Amino acid sequence: MPEEPKNRVRTILLNIRESAVELQDSAGEMEGLLSIFLEGMASRIINLIDIALKEL
């Protein structure tokens, strides 16, 4: 993949990861099953993005 598109993809992934971290933080302040679900989903998104970034 040429460098410019790769940098755009990296930027997009980093933005999504930042949003997932914010979601995880917000869910940690909530109570109940929804907060557990949101924290788990955000954690999974963060992990998948970290894997994708390593592959770029």
Task: Name the shape in a single word.
Answer: elongated
Indicate the low-confidence ranges by residue numbers: none
> What is the helix/strand order?
HH
Describe the main β-sheet briefly: none
Our count of helices gives 2
Helix content: over 70%
Provide a compact summary of the structure.
Helix content is 88%, strand content 0%. The chain is mostly helical and 56 residues long.
What's the topology here?
Layout: H1 3-28, H2 33-55
Helix pairs in contact: 1-2
Q: Care to describe what's here?
A:
By secondary structure, the chain is mainly alpha-helical. The protein has a domain at 1-33. Helices cover 88% and strands 0% of the residues. It has helices at residues 3-28, 33-55. Helix 1 runs antiparallel to helix 2 (33-55). The longest helix has 26 residues, at 3-28. It starts with a helix and ends with a helix. The relative contact order is 0.18. The mean pLDDT is 93.
